[in-house]
Amino acid sequence: MDIIIKSAKSKDWKIIQRLNDQVILNDLENDDDIDLNWSASEEGIKSYQEIVGGDNRKCYIAYLNNEPIGFVALSIKDFGYRKSKYIEIEKMGVDQEFRSKGIGKMLMDESIRWAKEQKATKLYVSAYWGNKRARDFYKKNGFYESGVEMDKKI
């Protein structure tokens, strides 16, 4: 498999939207509060356009034979109260047909390279607790648990 990783251009927001729609469908298993219409909404479209064209952001797309099969969207994350400079993995996904073939690792390597260019010393990602596959992927790539997000229905 000859995979090429390219920087996303502002016109590529629809590619990110399409690939992320698969992530959203997968996340339904872990979050019954997901709005399936958000991606195509005005707010959703604006979000995807900012991912590929916003300041302090970077997005990479993985291609196989000129077909987009994965992506990662990054941004500088300012916690304010922490000393380190962080890069957040805002969104990441690989087409279901191509998962567990090293594409996520390739995208992670590009993320680390860009983070180092930004003089960041840490990557940050949030994953659903119930998404064991995602948690295992991140742990395999050197991430460790540093907090817990919690919800309460009221």
From TrEMBL:
Native source species:
Candidatus Woesebacteria bacterium RIFCSPHIGHO2_01_FULL_40_22
The record places domain N-acetyltransferase at 3-154
Any GO molecular function: acyltransferase activity, transferring groups other than amino-acyl groups
Tell me if Transferase is a UniProt keyword of this record.
yes
- KW Transferase (keyword) present: yes
> One Pfam family for this entry, by name?
Acetyltransf_1
Q: What is the lineage of its organism?
A: Bacteria, Candidatus Woeseibacteriota
Task: Please state what the protein is called.
Answer: N-acetyltransferase domain-containing protein
Which keywords belong to this entry? Acyltransferase, Transferase
